[in-house]
Design brief:
Order of helices and strands: HHHH
Region (Disordered): 66-88
Number of domains: 1
Pfam families: YgaP-like_TM
Protein name: Inner membrane protein YgaP-like transmembrane domain-containing protein
Number of helices: 4
Distance between the termini: 44 Å
Domain Inner membrane protein YgaP-like transmembrane: 1-62
Low-confidence stretches: none
Length: 88
Amino acid sequence: MKPNIGTLNAMVRITCGLTILACSTAELTKYRRNGRHLLYAMMGAMKVAEGITRFCPLTKMITDSVSAQKNHTDETGSSTPDPQINEL
């Protein structure tokens, strides 16, 4: 995995992730039957992991999609994805 987020972005993700994780864990100890706090804890842990590894899967998918769209546009020579529109 190649890092796809910057250092500052990683620090912000770690800080926010630890904050979310701490708050949700504190609430999880109070309300054991509520699954929402467990979901928040998992989301916070994911943000911490993204910050530590400096790799975000969502950013990777978006950049791959944009670059594929750009390559398709460069090959066809038009900005429209359907070549039949240009023939009309």
